[in-house]
Amino acid sequence: MSKMAIPTAQPSGFPRTLRRSPRRAVSAAVWYIVMIFASILVVIPFIWMISTSFKDATEVFSYPITWIPKQLRWQNYIDAWHAAPFARYFFNSGVVAFAVTLGQLISCSLAAFAFARMNFIGKNFMFSLFLSTTMISTQVTLIPSYLVIKQLNWQDTYQGLIVPFLANAFGVFMIRQAFMGLPRELEDAARLDGCSRLRFLWQIAIPLTRPVLGAQALFAFMGNWNSYLWPLVVTNRQEMRTLQIGLRYFVSQEGGTQWGIYMAAAVMVTIPVILFYFLVQKSFVEGIATTGIKR
Amino acid sequence: MNDSESNPIVTNFVHSGWWRRWGEETFSAYAFLLPSILIFIVFTFFPVIFSFISSFLRWNLPYKAVAAGFDNYVDLVSGPVTSQVFWKSVWNTFYFMLGIPINMILALILALLLNRKLPGVALFRTAFFLPTITSMAAISVVWIWLYHPSDYGLFNSLLMEVGLPVQRWLRDPVLAMPCLILMGVWHGIGYNIIIFLAGLQAIPRELYEVAEIDGAGTTAKFFYVTWPQLSPTTFYILVIGVINSLQAFTEIDVMTQGGPLNVTTTLAYYLYQEAFKYFRIGMGSAVAVILFFILLILTLLQFKVLEKKVYYE
Asked: CB of B126 within 8 Å of any CB in chain A?
């Protein structure tokens, strides 16, 4: 957990000044109290979610409330898992997010390479065209995009969930920036040796810019895993729903009393993402801090 | 490639100066751009044009579309039933944006606090960032339970603890929107903290040192160094906040479906209802066009107003 990396603040022990000056020690103590209080406030909904997920029906509706369940009812998780096809939802979300990520990496690297390392007629125009797509909100394209999918008979299909997201101008700009940093001589040398552009891109440019591509992949994956509006619109059949939509229908269809089971489902949906985040938080935070992109 | 070598015309063309200078590279470049361009044409540019066109049609599925001139817009602005919901949703859209300044102020305070070298600071940062990475849909489900109108919802239990009357929260027309805003601030604050922290750490140390030599205290340092140096970051967060706020959908759909009494129906949600609940494609498109222009005007306005105030080195 101590890996969280915003550059400067990584001390290995208490700063020397702290031990010397009582005034600083008091200020540090106040700081800790404020921070602990604030972070508890922020974490409470998660604690309440986990706590409720282990309660039986009577304890869920009991006053005064209990933070630690009287006994841990794992059955809630089993019940939730069987009450809706959550395995299928996980599978669908995984397939879609993975395919979108891979597709975006390919389409973005190709376009980024053209913008970063090639001179061609209409380059400025194409660049502003790509730029303009970032200013168009999802809602404005929602209805016609849906009609396109309907026309193609792609409702309730993986391609309907995947294809509209296979291009991403933000990704193009990010990767372009990285490609522009590659030395000119590198490409010239490779080209002299008869290396085609595509091969240079695949064998030299991409391996050299792996951190940027990794960050981009992370954003694409998380963004799609969490996406809601589009899957809601293009899926009807239960077995094609993604995790987010599945969870939403699971909670609303039951008439709203089995909160122990609902929270168990919510834990199943959120905890994998949080664990995944702990694995990759360094690149994630750095990616946001340097690019500001979270999509 | 081999075929073209044998054809004298093609050979001449391929070896001509123009092709060598521009043709080959342009051709390859467009081949590289092609996958992205195709997707953008079908799912961005065509839809934008289509939305403009269909906003001038009366098109209620499954019936066929009929030209309707400005009827949809007139209906939205002054029609007997629709205009009520429309103007309410315009109001709600801006009301919902109240979360942006709240979020920014809290995020800035927390970022200033977190910008210190004390043990454990990484742990606190992680805590504030947790809500941001979890999906809005799952988080909304959790907050429905927090806001549960019975005595057993967390908020109501706390109210009872201190002897206040229980509330209906999301089902209360007055409280529903503040409830959504509060959850939105909670969910989005980690992201803004990260951006503010990056901005704070980019401020050159020397500026503070110079200010200290001039006798500036903590407050003076904030207003004369931190705040002006941070203004591009603040501006960026504001723009992103407005764009995200205009597009907010998930929490509304999961938690309130625009209710009660339409108090949480924003323009984005109203668009969804018109098109996907009542199947009025033309009407929905008109809302989409209006949303498009609101976003455009707000973005231009932000640039105009803030360009002068934003401090660039």
From this structure: yes
Do residues A147 and B54 touch, judged by C-beta distance below 8 A? Answer: no
Its pTM stands at 0.85
Give yes or no: residues A101 and A245 share one domain.
Answer: yes
Task: Tell me the two tokens of residue A255.
Answer: 């008439």
> In this complex, which of A146, A228, A259 lies closest to B250 when CB atoms are compared?
A228
Q: Are residues A104 and A63 in the same domain?
A: no
Number of structural domains in chain A? 2
Secondary structure of residue B151 in the 3-state scheme = coil
In this complex, is the C-beta atom of A24 within 8 Å of any C-beta atom belonging to chain B?
A: no
**Domain extent listing, chain B:** 2-54, 97-265
Helix B82-96 and helix B176-201, axial crossing angle in degrees, nearest 10: 40
Please list every residue in chain B whose beta carbon sits closer than 8 Å to the beta carbon of residue A166: 35, 39
Chain segment A25-53, per-residue pLDDT in tens: 888 888 899 999 999 999 999 999 999 99
Encode pLDDT of A38-97 as tens digits: 999 999 999 999 999 998 888 888 777 788 888 888 888 998 899 889 999 999 999 999
CATH (domain of A93): 1.10.3720.10
According to CATH, the superfamily of the domain at B97-265 is: MetI-like (1.10.3720.10)
Asked, for residue A147, whether it belongs to a domain, the answer is yes
**Beta strands, E only, chain B:** 57-58, 66-67
B57 forms beta bridges with: B67
For residue A55, what are the domain limits?
A: 16-79
A222 and A248 within one domain = yes
Same domain? A110 vs A123:
yes
SS3 A116: helix
Measured in angstroms, the CA of B268 and the nearest CA of chain A are apart by 7
ipTM of the complex: 0.85
Token output for A158: 């993986």
B145 lies within 8 A of chain A by CB = yes
Q: For B16, phi and psi rounded to 5 degrees? A: -70, 160
How far apart (Å, rounded) are the C-alpha atoms in residues B104 and A62? 37
Q: Is B116 exposed, middle or buried (0-12, 13-18, 19+ CB in 10 A)?
A: middle
Residue A173 contacts B, CB cutoff 8 Å: no
Chain B: residue whose CA lies nearest to A111: B33
* Dist CA A76 CA A259 (whole Å): 9
- The average pLDDT across B71-77 equals 89
Q: 3-state class of A114 per DSSP?
A: helix
Q: Is residue A239 part of a domain?
A: yes
CA distance A217 to A114: 20
* A142 and A45 within one domain: no
Judge if A161 and A70 occupy the same domain.
no
Q: What are phi and psi of B57, to 5 degrees?
A: -115, 145
